[in-house]
Amino acid sequence: MQSTRTVLITGGNRGIGFAIAEEFIASGYQVAVTARSGSGPVGAMTVIADVTNSESLDAAIAAVEAELGPISILVANAGITKDTLLLRMSDEEFESVVDTNLNGVFRIVKRVIKSMLKQKFGRVILIGSVVGLLGSAGQVNYSSTKSALVGMARSITREIGAKNITANVVAPGFIDTDMTAELGEDLAKSYRERIPAGRFASPSEVAKVVRWIASDEASYISGAVIPVDGGLGMGH
Length: 236
Prior knowledge:
- By secondary structure, the protein is of the alpha/beta class.
- It has eight helices and seven strands.
- The protein has helices spanning 15-26, 54-68, 91-119, 131-134, 140-160, 178-181, 185-194, 203-213, and strands at residues 6-10, 30-35, 45-48, 71-76, 122-127, 165-172, 225-228.
């Protein structure tokens, strides 16, 4: 059954999104990724789309469903950062992060949910962040969007939870990706010291949790925030 399901992952051309695509491919799913540039892993269908552009999403979804069939699992992963302290943050730096990380998630969820309702099966998985509930200096824009995803998942759950559709947030902590590689060793060391696990996660550790949340085994979990953060956000 699972191998016939189609997964769409936004921002699947690098980092966590790329690893999530690899994990679903390895588990036998049909996988498509959206990317603004580049491509997903071998075995994935790549469609060029920008979550801030509604027309590009309409075209991408139509192409995926024509090739792979109805989308039943959505992983809303695409996101950007424009970090700076609140007093220095411009309106544009706040609004552009909101448009990608929150409005972009709404745009893709709204378009894909129709297929899930027709199939009477769906998994909406929103990639949040530990800073959505923990907060982070210099990330008022980013942490606000990731916090908002919790309300979105819970509202979706209340609206259509009886239709065999779940909506959850997977909230990674610090992950070994291109973004964390740019931190510099001193800053990376100070971050690692705050993490009870004492290390950053690999992207595949996040991907495995996402794949499990999409499975039949997780059918009674909805409106939840699942942390993958080595204990960093405990109590939040």
